[in-house]
Design brief:
Blueprint lengths: L4 E8 L4 E4 L2 E4 H8 L7 H8 L5 E3 L3 E3 L9 E8 L7 E7 L1 H4 L11 E4 L5 E3 L19 E4 L2 E7 L6 E7 H24 L1
Antiparallel strand pairs: 1-2, 1-7, 2-3, 4-6, 5-6, 6-7, 8-9, 8-12, 10-11, 11-12
Amino acid sequence: LDEGIRNVFLLTDSCDRVLSSEGSFDKARFFERVYRNPDYTLDFWNQERRGSFHFKLYGTGLFTGADPGEASSSLLPMAYRPSGNTHSLLVALVDVKQLANGFDPAFLDRFSILGKDGRVLFPLTESSEPDTGTPFLTTATHTGVKEGYSLTRDARRFGLRYVRFLPEADLQRELNQSNAALPLLLVAGSAL
């Protein structure tokens, strides 16, 4: 599997087992012990399997494994259901932080992914409701706010919105560093 995909599992109504990238498990055991989350239960996924969607992203959830010493993982579930097929559901559990490890380590600071309905899908939050009071949850491509700037990009597919908030203090620090280097560049340029 890709670095950011923690697990992929197939749930069908014709089999009492979950087929996953980690093996085959009894359905109840898989959701109670292997990938336990109070919201993403066997009943939840069975309900989703009967849904009328083709592809769907869900809010990030904290998943606990079978090993008591194992740390919980913040994972973003993505479900694929073949059109017209209510018998099976393919779900990928994506570790967004692991996926972004190839980026600058601070990339995920103040970064969010919003669903079509404005619900925060990432990062893990106490509430999945849109927070219209937070400056980085705006609708514009880039917006200046009192605390800094909000940069957004809408995905063409799936109705996602990627949002990154840049605080004024961080921008000022970068400008100060650039301004400090400018005289050196001018002196070096004039020496040539």
